[in-house]
Amino acid sequence: MFSSTHKKRTKLFTNKKLSPIAFILIFIVNLVIYNINQENEAIKKIRSFTDLTPYSINYIIINTSSAISSFTDYFINIDKLNKKITQLETELLLLRKDLSSNNYIQHENKELLTQLSIKKNYFKNAIVARLLPINYAGKAHHLEIDKGLTQGVKPGLITIDQEGITGQIINSYDNSSEIQTVFSKKFYITGYIQNGEKSQQVLIQGNQNHLEIKHFNTKESIAIGDIVYTTGDNSLIPKGIKIGFVSDILSSEIENFSKIIIQPLSKPYSHNFLMVLLP
Fold it and tell me: What strands, in cross-sheet order, belong to the sheet with 126-130?
């Protein structure tokens, strides 16, 4: 009999985790048993038969301790996970930075190879120069390169990319030079418009996001898409370098003249390297 009862009690209260509802029910049962009339014979028999209280109290203590330990472990694990996540995010950021840097280097190498190929095939006297990351405060459309007087670069020479003229050297120092790009309002160059077999010589000026011919005789032939080239009338500027193409023909304030808008073929601000055409 004792063995049977003991086995039932052992089976009823184990060290396995209990659901919160069952835990609360056991706690209420304990309170009821301790607070009702202890002299009541029925209660005495119930307590004597089940001997519930000592085991249930012990079970509550064990499970309470286990719950506290579980909560502590939970927050410790959460903290460890958050630290691990932060570490992984930092590593991911560094990997992305390395990937971006590698892509930039590959792009730069490809551009340099293109410039060197053009130099070899078309402009043997050209020098390839790297653009320097310098911001000219108050000077719109200015660039600086890492080649100067030491390398034979001097004011008046033009710079080009693989598409056409990008600007002109305006100041040279020992190992650097300043470029005024084709978009500067202070940029002037003589060119000619190729229209079929005829060509018209014109004066071209930069104007922020395009070039323009302020006064073009309407009697002369011209069409949208015509290419504009350098004339070569200056010893520092070779003939036949592409400047741009005619993108619009507008009326002028002067009768019998038009204003011609020219879109440069080059992209001065899209490169890491430019070529300086030496005389």
Answer: 126-130, 273-277, 158-160, 165-172, 177-181, 142-145
Q: What is the pLDDT along the chain (279 residues), one digit of tens a residue?
A: 444 444 444 444 444 555 566 666 766 766 565 555 555 565 555 555 544 445 555 555 556 666 666 767 777 888 888 888 888 888 888 888 777 777 766 766 677 677 767 776 667 788 999 988 876 555 678 899 999 999 999 999 999 988 899 999 999 999 999 999 999 999 999 999 877 666 778 999 999 889 999 999 888 888 999 999 999 878 888 889 999 999 999 988 888 899 999 999 998 888 888 889 988
Distances, alpha carbon 245 to alpha carbons 38, 189, 239, 241, in Å: 109, 15, 16, 12
Name residue 71's beta-bridge partners.
none
What is the rounded (10 degree) CA torsion for 199, 200, 203, 206? -60
- For the question of whether the overall pTM of this predicted structure is more than 0.70, the answer is no
Q: What does the alpha-carbon distance between residue 65 and residue 59 come to, in Å, rounded to a whole number?
A: 10
